[in-house]
Amino acid sequence: MSIYLGCPIWSFKGWVGNFYPKGTKPADFLREYARRLTTIEGNTTFYAIPAPKTIESWIEHTPETFRFCPKIPKAISHNGKLLEYVDRALYFVDVMRPLATRLGPLFLQLPPRYSPNLLGDLEAFLSRMPRDIRLAVEVRHLDWFDSPHREALNQLLASYNMARVVIDTRPIRSLEGDQILAGSSYESLLEARERKPDVPVFMERTGDFIFLRFISHPDLVQNIEFINEWVDYLVPQMQQNADVFIFCHSPDNLIAPEICREFHRRLASKINIPPLPWDALKPDAPEQPSLF
């Protein structure tokens, strides 16, 4: 049982002076990120396959306990039937293998047009994936969330010990916090509501790990009921030796690390888990306060 907490990015200048120390240069962002959190949702690989030197740099700037969770390139996932691009997917796996212990689950995000009518294509694609690689699958076509398609997908993923990604956008759907927001935070919230899929949330495990994408509200307090709900679900799963990967997003990125830390605090109050690397930093390092 392991818990990994992280964000979708590490290169964010807005964290300098709060999450990162004052004066941190972009070249040191990944190192500082890995000194605080334990995983990263690898969205950059969605747009381009990294060069070997980039992989080497990732290894150099992170400890062995850190986990990269690379997203399978959109040229594979968003280009029609998956099976037609399985060789490209296998090549992508090989490119990622030098990460070794730092390689977490790969992340296959399917477009909204990829419907249950393509279940056979998905099964054929997944059957070709190496068994030593963890894979998490996110679907967005709404029919996947209704019976019998929901159960069919869960059964397929369970047969390969793969996770069904849960994207929880409920916090940003809350209108209660809108009135206290102003300026860019409110605009970014509206943009996030448009961009992120509004899909049902089912707390169901199909493999030996859980892959949660938590889309947080810019007003910290609006997230608490949802964090608590997830903690109540995750603790017994972890007690059954499930590994957990939690990726915290926020519309303007600014509070995402703080949401990670709040998840950790609340989980740690109910189950014995290792401290975040963040907790070991010297007191003069940037601190983010608890929500309460």
Q: What does it look like?
A:
The protein has 292 residues and is of the alpha/beta class. The chain has one domain (3-277): Alpha-Beta Barrel (TIM Barrel), CATH 3.20.20. The chain contains 10 helices and 9 strands. The two termini are 28 Å apart.
Q: How are the secondary structure elements laid out?
A:
Layout: E1 3-7, H1 29-34, E2 39-42, H2 52-60, E3 67-70, H3 74-77, H4 86-96, E4 106-109, H5 119-127, E5 135-138, H6 149-159, E6 163-164, E7 166-168, H7 170-173, H8 183-195, E8 209-215, H9 224-239, E9 243-249, H10 256-268
Parallel strand pairs: 1-2, 1-9, 2-3, 4-5, 5-6, 7-8, 8-9
Summarize the structure.
The chain is α/β, with parallel strands linked by helices. The chain has a single domain, classed as TIM Barrel (Alpha-Beta Barrel), CATH 3.20.20.
Q: What is the approximate shape?
A: globular
In whole angstroms, the N-to-C terminal distance is 28 Å
> What is the number of independent domains?
1
Look at the structure and give the CATH class. Answer: Alpha Beta
User: What percent strand?
Assistant: 5-15%
Provide the CATH topology.
TIM Barrel
Cα gyration radius (Å) = 19 Å
Strands of the widest sheet, in order across it, are 3-2-1-9-8-7
Order of helices and strands: EHEHEHHEHEHEEHHEHEH
Q: Average the pLDDT over all residues and give the rounded result.
A: 90
Number of helices in the DSSP assignment: 10
The computed structural class is alpha/beta
Question: Major β-sheet, in short?
Answer: 6 strands, parallel
CATH architectural category: Alpha-Beta Barrel
SS elements, strand count: 9
